[in-house]
Amino acid sequence: YKIYGDFKEATTALLKNDGIFGKLNLVEGRWQDVFAEAVTESRVASIQKNSLEAVIKRDPEFALRLFSSFSERLRQSDEVIESLLHREVSTRLATLLGNLSERFGRENGSGTLIDVRLTHQDLANMIASTREAVSKVMSEFQREGVIENRNRRIAILDSSALTEHASRLSGLSVDGQTSI
């Protein structure tokens, strides 16, 4: 996560196994101020700029994986920016839940369980909203049978309804065409 201006915390990424944390400016050689918090048991390692440069020069396959990871993070950042352009919290939340389901979802008997424990505040930090607004929308999604909370984990019960929420509320139809 990153802290902006008036101490507003924004979650910038959820990492999976072998995820890379931190933002090194290889040209200037300094790290940007970002923070991490583990939501599962984790191992962390650090690397100095000169060591990283040496590994990149010596191991092109590692360099490709590293740049692929950076590319994925950039794509995720673009998705966040696009999502923030939508004014409705429900649109942003439905989009986020769909993305989390794709990345961290595990099929179970009644749907897809997002296998990461997230609070409403965590979700709010990911979509630039408030905990109260997220709680309200989550309750609406639960009443509609779209999701279910299970021990601070979210289960997607109706992924097509979630997709419909994400697209309909943003002015797009399910097939990606603009609706009027």
UniProtKB/TrEMBL annotation:
Gene Ontology MF term list = DNA binding; DNA-binding transcription factor activity
Where the record annotates domain HTH crp-type, the positions are 87-160
| GO cellular component annotations of the record | cytosol
UniProt key word Cytoplasm = no
Matches recorded under Pfam families: HTH_Crp_2
Tell me the domain of life: Bacteria
Q: Which CDD domains match?
A: CAP_ED (cd00038), HTH_CRP (cd00092)
Cite the Cyclic nucleotide-binding domain residue spans from the record.
Answer: 1-73
Known Gene3D superfamilies for this protein?
Answer: Jelly Rolls, Winged helix-like DNA-binding domain superfamily/Winged helix DNA-binding domain
Keywords per UniProt: DNA-binding, Transcription, Transcription regulation
Q: State what protein this is by name.
A: cAMP-binding proteins - catabolite gene activator and regulatory subunit of cAMP-dependent protein kinases
